[in-house]
Design brief:
It is a single chain. The protein has 110 residues and is an alpha+beta fold. The protein has 2 domains: 38 residues, YefM-like domain (YefM-like fold), CATH 3.40.1620; 66 residues, no CATH class. Helix content is 55%, strand content 15%. It has a 3-stranded mixed beta sheet, covered by helices on one side. Strand 2 and strand 3 form a beta hairpin. Helix 3 runs antiparallel to helix 4. The radius of gyration is 16 Å and the shape is globular. The two termini are 33 Å apart. 12% of the residues are buried. Pfam families: UPF0175. Belongs to the phD/YefM antitoxin family. It comes from Lamprobacter modestohalophilus.
Length: 110
C-alpha cells in the first residue's frame, strides 16, 4: 500500500512525529508488533466525525485506490448503491479511469 506508512512499536519512540504528520495529511498508518499488524491509525478528522470509523476508513481507502468500490462498500457496512450515494456529496468519483484505460475498458465491453 503506497499511502500507508508502517511503523513498528519500537519506531514510535523515534518516529512519532512522522506518525503525527501522516495523520495531519489524512494518511493512514499501520503499527506493527513483532512484524504483525497491531494497530491501524486512522486520522481524527472531519470525515471520521461525520461518517464514523467504518465509513471514514472505507472512503479513505477507496479514494487512495487501495479498495475497489465493492470492497469499500463492504468495509463501510453499506450496500453498493448506498456507498455510491455516499460518494456524490463528498465529490468523490465512482469511476476514475485514466482516459486510455477507459478506452480499453469500453472496447473490452463491446
Amino acid at each position: 500500500m503506497d499511502n500507508l506508512d508502517v511503523f513498528s512499536v519500537r519506531d514510535l519512540r523515534t518516529r512519532s512525529g512522522d506518525l503525527l504528520r501522516d495523520a495531519e495529511r489524512g494518511q493512514l498508518a499501520l503499527i506493527t508488533k513483532h512484524g504483525r499488524p497491531a494497530i491501524l491509525a486512522v486520522p481524527f478528522d472531519r470525515r471520521l466525525l461525520e461518517q464514523g470509523v467504518h465509513r471514514a476508513l472505507a472512503l479513505t481507502l477507496f479514494e487512495q485506490r487501495q479498495l475497489t468500490l465493492a470492497q469499500a462498500a463492504k468495509v463501510a457496512g453499506l450496500s453498493l448503491d448506498a456507498f455510491i450515494d455516499l460518494l456524490e456529496p463528498l465529490g468523490l468519483p465512482v469511476v476514475d479511469y485514466p482516459a486510455d484505460e477507459l478506452v480499453d475498458e469500453l472496447e473490452a465491453a463491446l
